[in-house]
């Protein structure tokens, strides 16, 4: 289980996270939502050890994150940041193979090769396995990164704005894949999402942040109300329901 | 498959290099050499060829590692101040410890090039404007500043000529007994190869590396230390070979990609054969005189560099 206690983060004198207490539900999709600068990505960064914190603690399976060996943690928790300045020219297969790095330090065993093949197949990337990443579309690249995370085979998967730069079709496909990872493999996924409606349709649990504090959290059902969303976003939002899914209208 | 083509090319060029020179040692005599011919081969031609191979491979690997670690295709010992810092180290060694052995000089040059490279990396971290071309320009400026300090003190101490010997890469002065320090580089190649996968991962960015459980800063430090060691040993035995670390890794990257496990041996082999070819040409163009290797590689290299810059929209940007 991932748990945070009184996490505080400051940049210079500005407090960006203030006393965050959170228990992330197991085997569900949890979405961090909120306005720009609310602290969503910072919180994800701290939970995944990419960022240092000024105070509080992060517990992963009841052990403080600072006590985890980085290598051991990389078999338990995977973090994918939005990657828009990729420079290295790797093939899809190379990239996915790096997902096995925590296990084999780059010398793939037969077992590792099987995991890589499975991940490629799961994401439908077999025909592209020898292609260079920089020759792929944004959607295909994102799929390759997810395949790497699948090969990494961790219980916890943390994704920072995985839908960035994806068109509608690719975004829906991505969310469906993540949903299947939870339903079929029992992964625990945490996402930072900008689009509240994607969160509503695919997430089980929502954490709303504003000015570095959690202002609302609960099941998707509980959070998708005009009142709660007003607390998070500071604007009036109408909620409508189509096919048992709540949508929030914010365009006018 | 590709690797074997490079291996064969390097071997052929190496054989050619051994048998090309002012003193005629034809290949047909290879099986019944006179004593004089054996001496020429052992004292001059063989050391020269070996040092070309090691220096060519070494400087190319240096460039490859630096480009990977800084995630910029135009960073190399030439464009990051590493070479200039090493040269300043050599000057300091000559000024402060005039009777020092080559090993001591190398260690001092090494300390300086490590320091120079790390200062450059610090500069990189502070630069907000991360344009692909801007970063090597900063490196070139930084290198020029160090270089002008070197020249100033060299001038004051009548060491300009001495220092110029390190400025101009030259294989004609490589003789038995004066190049063996280059062999230090060979174990460094092996270490670089062992770390190849980690360098590739680090080249994907800090969060990517941390996610896979790597200690980002340690890997970067190991990489830059390797680069500084190789650069100093090459500079002290052969001199500066400009652009090599820039063009060789880029050409390999265009055709083979950036997975260092695969590209590192190819880069080494291609670097070696490129310098061998340049050196053989340099020996033949104005035969019986020689054009120095830094001039040959400089002319060819800057030409290729311009071509790379022009097509960077397609590839490096």
Structure, described:
The complex is a heterodimer of chains A (252) and B (317). Chain A has 252 residues and is α/β, with parallel strands linked by helices. Helices cover 35% and strands 29% of the residues of chain A. Chain A starts with a strand and ends with a strand. The model of chain A has no long low-confidence stretch (mean pLDDT 92). By secondary structure, chain B is mainly α. Chain B has a single domain, classed as ABC transporter involved in vitamin B12 uptake, BtuC (Orthogonal Bundle). Helix content of chain B is 72%, strand content 0%. Chain B contains 13 helices and no strands. Chain B is globular, with a radius of gyration of 19 Å. Chain A binds chain B through residues 48-50, 69-75, 78-81, 83, 85-91, 94, 98-99, 101-102, 105-106, 132, 152, and chain B through 68, 71-73, 197-198, 200-201, 203-208, 210-215, 253, 257-259, 261.
Give a short synopsis of this structure:
Chain B: It holds the Pfam family FecCD. By secondary structure, chain A is α/β, with parallel strands linked by helices. Chain A has helices at 40-47, 70-73, 92-98, 101-104, 110-122, 138-152, 168-185, 196-202, 220-223, 226-233, and strands at residues 2-11, 14-24, 29-34, 55-60, 63-64, 77-80, 156-160, 188-192, 205-210, 213-219, 238-242, 245-249.
The biggest beta sheet of chain A reads: 6 strands, mixed
Please state the average pLDDT score of chain A. Answer: 92
Strand content of chain A: 25-35%
Beta-strand level of the residues of chain B, as a percent range?
A: under 5%
Q: What is the helix fraction of residues of chain B, given as a range?
A: over 70%
Shape of chain A: globular
| Biggest interface, residues from each chain | A-B, 31 and 25 residues
Low-confidence stretches of chain A: none
Number of helices of chain B: 13
Strand order of the largest sheet of chain A: 6-7-8-3-9-10
Number of helices of chain A: 10
Number of strands of chain A: 12
Instruction: Please tell me the CATH architecture of chain B by its name.
Output: Orthogonal Bundle
Q: Give the CA-based shape of chain B.
A: globular
Fourth-tier CATH superfamily name of the largest domain in chain A: P-loop containing nucleotide triphosphate hydrolases
What value does the Rg of chain A take, in angstroms?
Answer: 18 Å
**SS class of chain B:** mainly alpha
Distance between the termini of chain B: 30 Å
- SSE succession of chain A: EEEHEEHEHHHHEHEHEEHHEE
Subcellular location (chain B): Cell membrane
GO cellular component, one term (chain B): plasma membrane
Organism (chain B): Terrilactibacillus tamarindi
Transmembrane segments (chain B): 45-66, 78-97, 103-121, 133-155, 175-196, 208-229, 235-257, 264-285, 291-310
């Amino acid at each position: 289980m991932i748990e945070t206690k009184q996490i505080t983060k400051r940049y210079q004198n500005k407090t960006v996270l203030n006393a965050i207490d959170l228990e992330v539900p197991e085997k569900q999709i949890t979405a961090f939502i909120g306005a720009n600068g609310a602290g969503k990505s910072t919180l994800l960064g701290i939970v995944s050890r990419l960022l240092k914190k000024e105070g509080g603690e992060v517990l992963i399976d009841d052990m403080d994150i600072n006590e985890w060996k980085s290598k051991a943690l990389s078999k338990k928790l995977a973090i994918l940041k939005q990657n828009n300045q990729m420079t290295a020219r790797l093939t899809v297969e190379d990239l996915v193979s790096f997902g096995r790095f925590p296990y084999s330090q780059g010398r793939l065993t037969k077992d590792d090769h099987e995991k890589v093949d499975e991940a490629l197949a799961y994401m439908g990337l077999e025909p592209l396995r020898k292609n260079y990443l920089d020759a792929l579309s944004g959607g295909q690249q994102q799929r390759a990164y997810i395949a790497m995370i699948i090969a990494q085979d961790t219980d916890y998967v943390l994704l920072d704005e995985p839908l960035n730069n994806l068109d509608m079709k690719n975004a829906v496909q991505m969310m469906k894949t993540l949903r299947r990872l939870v339903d079929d493999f029992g992964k625990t996924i945490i996402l930072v999402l900008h689009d509240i409606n994607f969160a509503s349709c695919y997430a089980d649990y929502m954490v709303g942040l504003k000015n570095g504090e959690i202002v609302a959290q609960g099941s998707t059902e509980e959070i998708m109300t005009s009142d709660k969303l007003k607390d998070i976003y500071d604007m009036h939002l109408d909620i409508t329901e189509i096919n048992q899914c709540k949508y929030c209208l914010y365009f006018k | 498959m590709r690797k074997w083509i490079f291996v064969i090319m390097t071997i052929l060029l190496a054989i050619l290099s051994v048998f090309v020179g002012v003193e005629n040692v034809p290949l047909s005599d290879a099986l019944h050499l006179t004593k004089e011919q054996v001496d020429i081969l052992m004292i001059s031609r063989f050391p020269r060829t070996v040092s070309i191979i090691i220096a060519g491979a070494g400087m190319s690997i240096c460039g490859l590692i630096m480009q990977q670690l800084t995630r910029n295709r135009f960073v190399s010992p030439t464009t990051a101040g590493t070479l200039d810092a090493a040269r300043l180290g050599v000057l300091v060694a000559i000024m402060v410890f005039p009777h020092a052995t080559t090993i001591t000089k190398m260690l001092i040059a090494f300390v300086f090039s490590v320091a120079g490279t790390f200062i450059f990396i610090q500069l990189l971290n502070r630069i907000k404007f991360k344009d692909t071309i801007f970063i090597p320009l900063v490196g070139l400026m930084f290198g020029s500043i160090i270089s002008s300090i070197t020249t100033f003190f060299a001038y004051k101490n009548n060491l300009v000529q001495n220092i110029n010997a390190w400025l101009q890469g030259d294989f004609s002065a490589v003789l038995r007994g004066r190049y063996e320090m280059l062999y230090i580089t060979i174990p460094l190649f092996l270490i670089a190869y062992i770390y190849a996968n980690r360098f590739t991962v680090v080249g994907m960015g800090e969060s990517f590396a941390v996610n896979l459980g790597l200690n980002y800063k340690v890997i970067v430090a190991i990489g830059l230390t390797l680069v500084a060691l190789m650069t100093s040993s090459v500079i002290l035995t052969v001199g500066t070979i400009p652009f090599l670390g820039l063009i060789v890794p880029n050409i390999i990257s265009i055709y083979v990609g950036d997975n260092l496990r695969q590209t590192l041996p190819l880069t080494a082999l291609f670097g070696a054969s490129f310098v061998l070819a340049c050196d053989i040409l340099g020996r033949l163009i104005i035969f019986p005189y020689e054009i120095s290797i830094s001039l040959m590689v400089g002319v060819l290299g800057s030409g290729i560099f311009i071509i790379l810059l022009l097509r960077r929209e397609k590839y490096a940007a």
